[in-house]
Amino acid sequence: MKLDKYMVGKRYGKALFELALEKQEADDIYQQLLKLREVYHLVPGIGDILSDARLEPNEKDEIMEQLLKGFTGTVENFLQVVHSYSRMNDMLLMIDEYERRYDDHKGIILGTVVTAVPLNKDQHQQIEAKAAKLFGYEEASLINLIEPKILGGAIIGANYKVVDGSIRKQLKNIEEDLLR
Q1: Phi (first) and psi of residue 73, to 5 degrees
Q2: Please, which residues have CB within 8 angstroms of residue 119's CB and are 6 or more apart in sequence?
Q3: In contact, 60 and 67? CB cutoff 8 Å
Q4: Are residues 102 and 15 in contact, defined by beta-carbon separation less than 8 angstroms?
Q5: pLDDT tens sequence across 80-115
Q6: Using CA of residue 129, residue 133, residue 137, residue 143, what is the dihedral sign?
Q7: Cα separation of 28 and 42, whole Å?
Q8: What is the rounded distance in angstroms from the CA atom of residue 133 to the CA atom of residue 20?
């Protein structure tokens, strides 16, 4: 059975996170993975290049050697294993899975808050505090997305759940009540 890239990402990310906890290196590994994600964004296609069967092994090894210079210990070993299985093109999915598990372990929920206008710092912090309570976490880290169509209020999305407190939704509910 061939695994799809999302399953691969989940498995490798989970394995790395479990190893990180076991070795008590979760924070250090998390910081190195953020650096690795940055490399992937600065050099788009690096994962595909390192996973491309058409490239000569020595060409890939030279690129890997340069990449490994920025990493140590468990992350360096992890990169070598992933490279040996030609899965470097799934690395961002692995990092995402590690980050999800890391944040969950730390009691942090990641999500979005959609508003009609940008939130100021105080509003953003208040909504994050409410979202953390609402979803049962110690802390929330929400990215503020702007969507004027909601008119006002906010729509919070995290952990595959959505809380719609937008004025547009409230008006729609009133309209439905009036039509009954």
Answers
A1: 55, -130
A2: 113, 127, 144
A3: no
A4: no
A5: 999 999 999 999 999 999 999 999 999 999 999 999
A6: negative
A7: 21
A8: 28
Could you tell me the two tokens for 169?
């939704």
**What confidence tens digit (pLDDT) does each residue in 128-153 have?**
999 999 999 999 999 999 999 999 99
> 76: how many CB neighbours lie within 10 A of its CB?
14
Q: CA-based Rg of the chain, rounded to a whole angstrom? A: 21
Three-class DSSP category at 52: coil
Give dist(CA 115, CA 157) in Å, integer.
Answer: 12
CA dihedral 157, 160, 163, 169 (to 10 degrees): 90
d(CA 29, CA 76): 10
Q: Residue 95 in 3-state DSSP?
A: helix
Strands (E), 31-168: 108-115, 139-146, 153-158, 161-166
Residues 41 and 43: their CA atoms lie apart, in Å, by 6
- Between CA 125 and CA 135, with CA 129 as vertex, the angle to 5 degrees is 140
67, HSE (Cβ side, Cα atoms, 13 Å): 28
